[in-house]
Design brief:
Elements: H1 6-22, H2 26-33, H3 36-42, H4 44-47, H5 52-62, H6 83-97, H7 103-111, H8 114-119, H9 125-133, H10 140-144
Helix pairs in contact: 1-2, 1-3, 1-5, 1-6, 6-7
Length: 155
Amino acid sequence: MQKNNNSLFYTCSLIEFIARLTKNHRKDIIKFLGDDLERIYNYQDVFHCEPIEKVADDFIKRNNIPQGNFDNISKCKYDVPSYWDIGEVFERLVEDNYDEKDVFIGIRELYNSELAEKIFNFNPICTINLVTIWLSVTSVEKYFYEFNDNNTLNF
């Protein structure tokens, strides 16, 4: 797959932005967006011309995304990665583990994975390390089982 895929980066960042705005789990945002996930990916160059707040609001209304109660931001003890940072992490995970033809399968699988749940827990120190080491990820499955029960990485 092409590296630094702008469509994938924008799509993953918008998913994160919508999830934070509506306080929903990211995997639920994927379900709410349905076929609009492909629309976002295919027309990111158009959507990118608008402020992300407006684009998010349009997709929230278009897909009737309800307000949830998942808040992994307000109780965070550390600096929270931006929605662009998280978008970049997921972009790289998809790029490194899926072919171009499987990009939507990759997005859905990754956002529904145990790894995603670990990434979205912004409190443990390991999240900072995970965001730092995403550059060297070569296999998603390799990292699914490298966390212990205390939510820290096993090296």
